[in-house]
Design brief:
It is a single chain. The chain is α+β, with helices and mostly antiparallel strands and 140 residues long. It folds into two domains: 1-38, N-terminal domain of TfIIb (Single Sheet); 40-137, GMP Synthetase, Chain A, domain 3 (2-Layer Sandwich). It contains three helices and six strands, in the order E-E-E-H-E-E-H-H-E. The strands form two sheets. A three-stranded antiparallel β-sheet has the order 1-2-3, with no helix packed on it. Strands 4-5-6 form a three-stranded mixed β-sheet. The longest helix is centred in the middle third of the chain and has 23 residues, at 40-62. This is Putative redox protein. Residues 1-37 are annotated as: Disordered. Residues 7-22 have a biased composition (Polar residues).
Length: 140
């Protein structure tokens, strides 16, 4: 896996993945940025959410669950001192679908956390406290 980061001026950088996709990262105005994109640590948090969401949906689809929507809401705390690393992250999944079985949703979230989500497991090994929760909804 590869990526490149190109400086765009001030506190702005264009990140390009090895698969050719790019995203603009930028700092806040008080740090020389123009607020034109997410901060690098926000990208890390979004990557964790994407990784875990991918796992949860894949597991639920393989379990033949009729999922119509899946949303992951992440909340993180960072250390007050430099480096301002993540200390705690909570992932909350809101899974919507027809006649979803709670034990299968719980299993999907647990398997992602404990076995499949590389980002989550890597961050936990670095000392980040990661927790998960979920709720299930029927479509409106």
């Amino acid at each position: 896996m590869k990526a490149t980061i190109d400086w765009s001026g001030n506190a702005s950088f264009k990140a390009t993945s090895g698969s050719g996709h790019s995203v603009q990262m930028d700092g806040p105005p008080d740090h020389g940025g123009n607020n034109l994109g997410p901060r690098p640590m926000e990208m890390l948090l979004m990557g964790l959410g994407g990784c875990s969401s991918f796992d949860v949906m894949s597991i639920l689809q393989k379990s033949r669950q009729d999922v119509t929507d899946c949303r992951a809401e992440l909340e993180a705390e960072r250390a007050d001192a430099v480096p301002s690393v993540f200390t705690r992250i909570h992932l909350h999944f809101i899974v919507t679908g027809n006649n979803l079985k709670e034990n299968l949703v719980k299993r999907a979230v647990s398997l992602s956390a404990e076995k499949y989500c590389s980002a989550s497991i890597m961050l936990e090994k670095a000392g980040v406290e990661i927790s998960h929760s979920y709720e299930i909804h029927e479509p409106a």
